[in-house]
Write a structure and sequence with these properties.
By secondary structure, this protein is mainly alpha-helical. The protein is built from twelve helices and no strands.
Length: 339
């Protein structure tokens, strides 16, 4: 699930790019940073990028439903550990097939450990705990606020991101949508403050991790796939240490919750990263990050149709306002052609 600027974002967010002082043009598709010569022609994927885009939207949209099902039988930390373990296993297989080299620098591993905490261990755990008390639909909508947090933080932490009227207006519009979702005019009646706060904090964790990655891992020399796989591995280690301290061994392994946790990791974390990795290389991050705006829609539909969660009018209306604000903060004026 990752997030926009995410671009990933997500993981999105593990594809660091060097800061730029000028408006960024739409990037052309490029090959991942490997030792392969750039003269080698890129092979056209067998599956059209639109189908992979739709698959990624569905996978990340259904992730909140899978979290809800998983927490029916397992503690939130156990759900997160199973998710990271399954996702790491998928990327480990792909890295072995492609013979990807792990980062060699101790400094890089240290930065990846911090990134794993903010981009994986912390937000995944917070969403799992949040869904103990809030619907999966609300968790999915809270996730859509990540671009808003990201824009607000980048204005402070990244000197090259200058505030504009359009971006400030998008930020204000987005948080107005959040208040609409939460029913502020009703005094937030019936709202679980603890669960909602954890979901919003999880959404805030993503851009914090992205800014850290952008500042510390840009130009590290390792491929995006190697960095992402290493990051997920470190996140798994972090949860493997924490989980036994706060949970007990489950008394059983019910089939449906177990399958939900495995699917959450293998599909929602492992396969989703690979799909996004391919989309960014083929159509560029600008198009690939548009998946962010489909996630809350699918999460809401899945929660209502499959889990039977109730939906008041202000939830979808507020979600649309949030998405409109997020889209406005990410929009850029077209650069005027130079003579």
């Amino acid at each position: 699930m990752c997030y926009e600027v995410r671009a990933a974002i997500v993981v999105t967010m593990s594809a660091p790019t060097a800061p730029r002082a000028t408006p960024e043009p739409r990037p052309a598709p490029s090959a991942p940073q490997t030792s392969v010569s750039t003269a080698t022609p890129a092979r056209r994927p067998a599956v059209d990028w639109r189908l992979r885009f739709a698959a990624l939207s569905l996978i990340w949209g259904f992730s909140f439903l899978l979290i809800k099902v998983g927490t029916d039988a397992y503690a939130p930390f156990q759900v997160t550990l199973g998710r990271l373990l399954s996702g790491t296993a998928v990327l480990a297989v792909v890295m072995a097939v492609k013979r990807e080299r792990l980062p060699r620098s101790v400094r890089t591993w240290g930065h990846l450990a911090v990134a794993a905490f903010f981009l994986n261990a912390l937000p995944f755990s917070l969403f799992a705990y949040a869904e103990l008390s809030i619907p999966s639909t609300l968790a999915g909508i809270c996730n859509a606020t990540s671009p808003l947090w990201g824009m607000a933080l980048s204005l402070v932490a990244l000197s090259e991101d200058r505030p504009t009227r359009r971006r400030v207006a998008g930020l204000g519009l987005g948080f107005l949508g959040v208040l609409t979702v939460l029913g502020a005019w009703q005094g937030f009646s019936g709202l679980d403050f603890g669960g909602t706060a954890m979901a919003l904090l999880a959404s805030l964790s993503y851009p914090v991790g992205w800014i850290y990655v952008r500042r510390t891992l840009a130009g590290s020399g390792a491929s995006t796939l190697a960095l992402t796989g290493s990051q997920l591995f470190l996140g798994t280690v972090q949860l493997a240490i924490v989980t036994p301290l706060f949970t007990t061994v489950p008394g059983g392994f019910p089939v449906l919750p177990t399958l939900a946790v495995v699917a959450l990791g293998a599909l929602g974390t492992g396969l989703a990263v690979l799909l996004q990795y391919g989309l960014v290389n083929e159509v560029g991050p600008t198009t690939a990050q548009m998946v962010t705006y489909f996630i809350p829609v699918i999460a809401t539909a899945a929660g209502v149709a499959v889990l039977g969660e109730r939906l008041s009018w202000n939830t979808p209306v507020g979600a649309l306002v949030v998405l409109a604000g997020a889209a406005l903060t990410q929009s850029r004026r077209r650069a005027r052609p130079q003579p």
